[in-house]
Amino acid sequence: MKIWIDCLRNEHHLPTEAYHELLTCQDAEVTDYLHQQAREVSLTQFGNKVYIRGLIEISNCCKNDCYYCGIRKSNTHIERYRLTKEQILDCCREGYKLGFRTFVMQGGEDRAQSVDWVIEVVTAIRSEFPDCAITLSLGEMSYQDYERLYDAGANRYLLRHETYQSSHYQQLHPQEMSAQHRQQCLRWLKEIGFQTGTGIMVGSPHQTIDNIIEDILFIEQLKPQMIGLGPFIPHQDTPFAQHPAGSVELTLKLLSIFRLMFPQVLIPSTTALASLGGDGRLKGILAGANVVMPNLSPSNTRKKYELYNNKASLGAEAAEGLTLLNEQLKTIGYEISMERGDYK
Ligand code: SAH
After folding, report:
1. Which of 97, 175, 261, 295 is deepest in the core (most CB within 10 A)?
2. With a threshold of 0.85, does the pTM exceed it?
3. What angle is formed at CA 290 by the lines to CA 285 and CA 294, rounded to 5 degrees?
4. Which CATH number does the domain 2-337 belong to among 3.40.50.2300, 1.10.10.10, 3.20.20.70, 3.40.50.300?
5. Closest residue CA from atom 11 of ligand 1
6. Centroid of ligand 1 to alpha carbon of 71 (angstroms)
7. Tens digit of each residue's pLDDT (9 = 90 or more) over 190-227
């Protein structure tokens, strides 16, 4: 099995059966070797530096009804909010003082925050913080709207494809959404020039190892600049409330596989990973991740952006907790980088 790992490191690709063996392998020595190889590649590419991104959750209103997501439109048990342009700019000002040079605006697909409005916000951030990267994660839009956002000064876009295979996608989403359209959006984003991120939830309901291999092959084709992976975590007020959470171990394995496939790609150690286990963040870094996205949202809205239960947003997950995050990173020999951290 170690030969496959060496092969992945050298060739950045494996035959399908080898992915299967690697993903199902239970041998701790092999897994350790996989993480170690991935870590070596990250260290060569980025040194012991971890890029930070300030996450601003701009709205928990959503027109979609994804079965896994706590802010789906059918959930009547949450208090909805949307930030104003001024609130978002205040988050950026706060973040800039703390040292952030990337702002990520994420939210539900909220019709009330029109594309014209988002363009206004992007334009304002672009003029006040010309040295910062602006990342958007606002779901599916038309080619024209993505292009207008790019022209207004947005640089990066995160849109996980969630799962490649159509029938599995349909088990996670209502009829009106489709895997094809989501993948089309990703191709548009790349074509327009965004540094584009995709990814999946690991252990989402009904997911098989073959689904994950199809995700790997899709990502291999797409060649994104960023890859986001987190374990699925149930939310009590969704149809998937009773499904078990995804595996941290499998998430970490995949993270290492992607690091070996794409040495330069930006991979966050995600909040979902941090939410499941106390040291999930650090495990992610040790498996090859090189980005963390602390929460810069106003503290009174953080709890309301509940995609899944027990989402971490305090302590080292919070933007104010950067010192704590840095101390934690130091225990494993890493430190925060204050650079903008573009894909190179
Ligand atoms: N509306 C945007 C942002 C969605 S939230 C969009 O459509 O892209 C960002 C990510 O959180 C989603 O892409 C999904 O992969 C993840 N997510 C949602 N619900 C989750 C859950 N219950 N467990 C783990 N991750 C979840």
Report:
1. 295
2. yes
3. 90
4. 3.20.20.70
5. 307
6. 9
7. 999 999 999 999 999 999 999 999 999 999 999 999 99
